[in-house]
Amino acid sequence: MDGKKNGAINSTNGHVSNGDINSSKGKEEPKLSCLQKISHKIISVLETAFYRLGRLIGTHPWRVMLIATVVTGLICIAAPFTFTESADGDDTLWVPVNAKVLDYKSWVESIFPSTVRFGTMIFVSNNVLTPTVLSAMWSIYNSSLSLTTGTNNFTTLCIQSGSNCLVNSILELWSYDETSILAASQADIKTKINSATTSPMYYNSYDITTVLGGEVYDGSGDIDSATATKMTWFIQGDDAVQAQAEAWEQLLIDLGRNGHSDISSTYVFAIRSFGDEAGGAIRGDIAFLSAGYVIVIVYITIMLGKFNCLEQRFGLAIAGVVVVGMSIGICFSLASLCGFEYGPLHSVLPFLLLGIGVDDMFVIVGALKNLSDEQQKLPLNERIGKALRHSGASITVTSLTDIMAFFIGATTLLPALRSFCIFAAFGIIALYGLSTTFFVSAMTVDVKRAAARLNACCCFYKHKPEYKPNNCSQKEYLPTFILKFYAPHLLKFPVKIVVLVLTAGLFGLTIWGTVNLEQKFEEKWFLPSDSYAYDYLTASDKYFSSGQEQAGVYCKSIDYFSKKTEMESLYTQLTASNYVVNGTVDSWFKSYTDWLSTTSDAAVLAQIDGTTKYPLDSTKFYDLLYQFVTTETTGLRFSRNLKFSNTSSVLGLTGSKISFYHPSVKDTVEGFNVLDGIQSLVAGVAGSDCFPYSQIHLTWESNKVIRQELYRNIALAAVCVFIICLVLIANIWTSLMVFSCVALTFVNVGGFMHFWGLTIDVVTCVQLILAIGLAVDYSAHIGHCFMTFQGGRNERVKATLVEIGGPVISGGFSTFLAFVLLAVSKSYVFTTFFKVLFLVVIFGLFHGLVYLPVLLSMIGPAAYLSADRRYQHDQKENDEENGVDNYAMEKQAPTL
């Protein structure tokens, strides 16, 4: 390798200093610390490998580009991505893989398979307890009976309770009888709703507050009015009729969205709603993806090239976006091959990879531009080798921090977060590989085009020798601004004091916000904010804010006959528990034994003990129970809560369910307590024979581990980032200063998340992990560059800002552009990513370009012993009027 001929290798950090003065031969070699030796060895190996790769690409760009394309195609073909949207309500995505509640869910679904679907409407008016509103509700109910799909209507698809189709609403108090409903007066309605304790249609206990919202009570404690009520239709959901059931649900949704003129607002929701609306949100985001890519292409074209026919780089910008697209294909295919599914978080991946990929492009092209005058005259393959030698190591470090952060995130117990982190890690690996091969090849071809004087947009047109770019296109505005204005003003002592005070103030403010950052997660956030399903769930939260959640205690195949004491104790403790809404426990065992105690049927009395009123033996217990739930009015409703088995003509129970409702919980902590409390209660009475289960338990279980998962992942990611910084910078004090930027950025982001109304959930967990990786990029380059300059602290900081400040700003702004359109998205995932990434960019740039330079100018350590660069006050703003790499303007083009 010709490092000694073409520029001195910085023996501490392995970088070739562009235009540096070599040390004299007689000068004694400086002693390096152990850390510096390790850093030098690692980076030297990287730079040697990238130098050789660059020379290869510079010699055979089209071959390398073809190989990269073929490899990408083979990966995508060999491991085709199966697009499976798991945003359709699969809440197990958010539950820890080792959670007991998943075992409970599996048992419930196997013994009591979900063969029930539903559609619900919420009706809102000033007072829904009026003859006008009840008449309108009956009209909607009556219309639902005539909704037909194929040969099926509600009557053929409905779930029956006894001999009636199951529809829960206040109208069941009049047994859905048109004459009675239309004849009811205001006084009749008030009397009926305040006196009802049992449904006259379904014979189960009836709590009017479960179907009313916004109740107003009179002086005697009776309900006088209500602003909302709801109606729920239950239909079959088994495989045989699923298609017809889904079609009928759509008709019901259309009916509800049309509303009724006598009802102020109608909100509707069905089983299919979540999948329809969440899936639609993901597909609707394609427009943002397309527009975002166009914006970034324009930005890359502007920043990578110049405004003239030869030096603009539109083709190179397109190649950069193609690299991102290829990386997306690879990461989706490899992750799918590993068994990971596409989830609701994954729609942001194209934007994430675009933002990271553009940063890499700026580093690579910037390295080519920053070659010294002597190096610019070398053959093309040498120039590409030297450019990749400088940029490859830098890209390796920044990519490694992001990859490590995501692989650490992939160790989480939450499947959705694990899947996203695996997708992202594979994507960044692919981006890293393609940026250093395909994109560098495209850059080589673009350099050849410019040297051949071919037009940047129409490469078939060759410009004449007398063509000269306009003078305006040759000006470098950002470096001039940093050199003439920003750096001199930042390094004034009063400004330094203001910066430190501002940083301390931001830290104090945001540490308070971070401490108060709430943990909360709701699946409805994955719905578009303008969807009918989101509106329904919002209305449900508003008008039925009691938050009562249906649940049940499930018991396995046990000897129920001999478990009389345990079953009675279970009922007693459930009814007395603070984790259960008073009056909502509906126990088949209690109703069964009450029936046995009060029946006058001689056939039944002959089979029970005259004193205890309990069956004489196990066989009689199950025979009478079967009779109770199939023939007795008070027992019919329990038929769906019992799973009978019939082995050798002997009845038994495979499973049973006792229904109840959980009370509302004000926050996630209370949800944890309710979950742990009800599980302990049931285990204390029935051991492992019974367990509580509800859909809400999945959410509570998820919330229980999100915060601790976040803390663990952040801590591990931070340690990895610090180690990488230490190896790269090879100075403990500078590394600590850089890490302070990362820590301050993280705290600032967390605090403003609180002020912006965001919470800790699976989405923000991903973003906070990513923030660690991105934040270090803005400060690590500043810290490293500072160590390579000799001189006083102020002049070293100024030299650092002039050399690396522009690329850092461009990288941060390109990341912002990649996400900017997400601000107007209706998707929670997209808008949250925009908010957090916006904060990361703003605070990352502030600490990297404002706080860190000030800190280094005041207490920065001495330069590397081998540092041989000094800031020249009289340096030119531009190497040549024609630009750094405008080979087309040279009298004799360099050798290619």
From TrEMBL:
Pfam family, one: Sterol-sensing
Record-level GO cellular component terms: membrane
Transmembrane stretches, start-end: 62-83, 286-304, 316-337, 349-371, 392-416, 422-445, 493-515, 710-729, 736-756, 768-789, 801-824, 836-865
UniProt KW keywords: Membrane, Transmembrane, Transmembrane helix
Polar residues bias locations: 8-24
Transmembrane among keywords: yes
UniProt domain SSD: residue ranges: 285-445
PROSITE patterns attached to this UniProt entry: SSD
Region ranges (Disordered): 1-27, 875-896
InterPro entries found in the cross-reference section: HMGCR/SNAP/NPC1-like_SSD, Patched_domain-protein, SSD
Family: Belongs to the patched family.
PANTHER family in the cross-refs: PATCHED DOMAIN-CONTAINING PROTEIN 3-LIKE PROTEIN, PATCHED-RELATED
Protein name per Swiss-Prot or TrEMBL: NPC1
